[in-house]
Design a protein that fits this description.
The protein has 237 residues and is α+β, with helices and mostly antiparallel strands. The chain contains eight helices and seven strands; from the N terminus they run αααββααααβββββα. 19% of the residues are buried.
Length: 237
Amino acid sequence: MRRAERLLQLIQILRRHRRPVTGEVIAAELEVSLRTVYRDIAALIADRVPIRGEAGIGYVLGDGFDLPPLMFTPDELEAVMLGLRWVARRGDQDLSRAAQDTVAKIGSVLPEKLRPFLFDAALLVPPHFRLVEDRVNVALLRSAIREGRKVKLGYRTEEGRETERMIWPFAVAYFDAQRLIVAWCELRQAFRSFRTDRMITMAVLDERYPARRKALLKQWQEESKKAGDMPQVDVFA
């Protein structure tokens, strides 16, 4: 790897992590010595790249710095295209359209030599003929999650029993054939999961739920880890 490429990759490693990254971790990924990493970091700081930290503790990339948006490698472009193709096939209608628009936007500004890696990528996502249809507008649910709003839900279980819930949605899980809303349920005072194809009615309220979305997500992940599995669908205690 040439030094210029190595410096760009070093910045990319720092961009990828929110917490300090040690020199040892960077050296292992770049397959260079720790001494080389320290020398490269010093060079980047001298070039006014906002890297903070010190040896033995770790380094972070300061806010407000970014690489030019088109510094893609062929592997990165194939990864982007594979993900966007998956979303276009499996996402809700608005998300699918957004994925297609994203491909068009990236392609319109890519250098000519990189376009084949985007438009002619050999990584395919086949159609899924068992994909179930949502009975509600999932885009509204995603908006409720972003804004931290409560949702009033009419729901039908696998057994056909209907129930009404007030939920605090904080995540959407996209499975191969269906979508799952992960939320805090006011009735059960616990985390519950709801399939979008089993939702009968759905209304996003103006009222915001009191907890932070990230805090709910973290608590749910911790409880899932203790249980040894993801929360089951339609768990009504």
